[in-house]
Amino acid sequence: xxxxxxxxxxxxxxIVVYAAVTTNTVEEARILHNMNPTPAVxxxxxxxxxxxxxxxxxxxxxxxxxxxxxxxxxxxxxxVTDYKAGVRGYVHNPFFDVPLNEAGKFDIKKAIxxxxxxxxxxxxxxxxxxxxxDLVSGEIAEDLTYxxxxxxxxxxxxxxxxxxxxxxKVMTAGGFFIQLLPGASEDAIVAVxxxxxxxxxxxxxxxxxKTPEDIIxxxxxxxxxxxxxxxPVSYKCTCSKDRMERNLMSIGKEExxxxxxxENGAELVCHFCxxxxxxxxxxxxxxxxx
Length: 290
Fold this sequence. Notes:
The chain is of the alpha+beta class and 290 residues long.
């Protein structure tokens, strides 16, 4: 199944729901960063969340960045999405692992520890919108649900899942994202609560062959759903040598001059895709005089 997001309106337009399969995207991230299972699950959840949240953007130049910083072994997580669910991300420490929790599941809470979550929305205005909340669970979906309630005052449900096989590859990944629109009735709230109360984990549903549309129908059975357009999801890094040049120039001429003293030049590595960019000594010297 190709990665994509399905979108629908429920309860006479009072509820918007997005459901996604992101298996290929998360597996690509796991391979790019050579991650152990626990960090792969953590980043996979955040990449999936970013993809789902991309559907709230309206224009080609808009982006959302999710930053999670904790005192656990993962250190931190960063994910960025454009308005068409082109996502990229990384964890500070991709090589650790922790034992499964008491429920026999990946202990993402222990991996992240205590800390905070930032959501940065660049909407093409002079200044980006930055929302900040302390982590309430470390399980990511609950933290993002809390972020929307606290920072944006929007009743929201986020559910994210990544299933790792015995070969440490990503078997399934996906999630859903439900928001009540302004003026939603009490009946709409009840419909959401009932719909998610006995739902299997998203990763399990996807593993059974369910599609994002199937998941939406499972959440709102019997509803007269309005299924809207779909959106493909992909891992999309935007790095380039020009961007790396700008990064070098931003550090200042004095530090750049020190780097240029090395006869071997300098090598920069993209955090998001690990692509390497080499700059010769002559190239560095040219940047100094620009």
